[in-house]
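Async update (no meeting this week)

Hi team, since we skipped the sync, here's where things stand on the single-chain job. The sequence we agreed to prioritize is pasted below, unchanged from the tracker. I ran it this morning and attached the output directly underneath so nobody has to dig for it. Comments welcome in thread, and please keep replies under the output.
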Amino acid sequence: MSLAGLVTICLGVLVVLTRGVMLIAPTTSLGWFKAAVKTQQRTQILAVAALPLPLAMIWPSFSEDSGLASVLLTLGIFLLLVIALGLFAFPGFIMRVANSVTPHRSAESLARWRIVGLFGMLMGVFIIFIGMDFL
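Output:
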């Protein structure tokens, strides 16, 4: 049993679940995301909720010496820096970026939001397969 494989499978399941909501209920997920980054305090709460993810990605590198563990370590450190610097230190910047990326007109841009959800789900399934290959 590879710890890096298990963490990768869990990461893939998380990606599938979060992007599946974008595909199935784009209005609800868009509303939730806009509400989550509406104020600086909410953005920082989102950062606290997202903080365990990079820590779980860094963890397998302490017990294994595989290529997957090295990739998880690199991505985990990058994500940790993005969360620490972006969401904690500069939440206003993240709020402006999020508002510029999210669609404002729901009818025409929800199709693009669904395409992003579909692409994300496919990437999540691919991540699950990579994790299963390393088990």
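Quick observations from my side:
The helical segments are 3-24, 26-36, 40-50, 52-58, 67-89, 91-101, 106-133.
Residues 27 and 110 are 7 Å apart (CA to CA).
Reply here if anything looks off.
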